[in-house]
Amino acid sequence: MKRFLIIGGDSRQDYLQQYLENDGFPVMRYRGQEQAQPSLADAMEQANVILSPLPFTKNGTELFSAAEGEALPILAFLSCLKKGHILFGGNIPDQVKSRCRTEDIPVYDFMKMEDVALKNTVATAEGAIAEAIVLSPGALHHSSCLITGYGRCGETLARKLTALDVRVTAADRSKARLALAYSQGLRCMHLGTPFPFCSFSLSSFDVIFNTIPSLVLDDSALRTAKKDAVLLDLASAPGGIDLTACKKRGLRAKSCPGLPGLYCPKAAAKILYQAVTEHL
Question: HEC string of 244-258?
Answer without folding.
Answer: HHHHHCCCEEEECCC
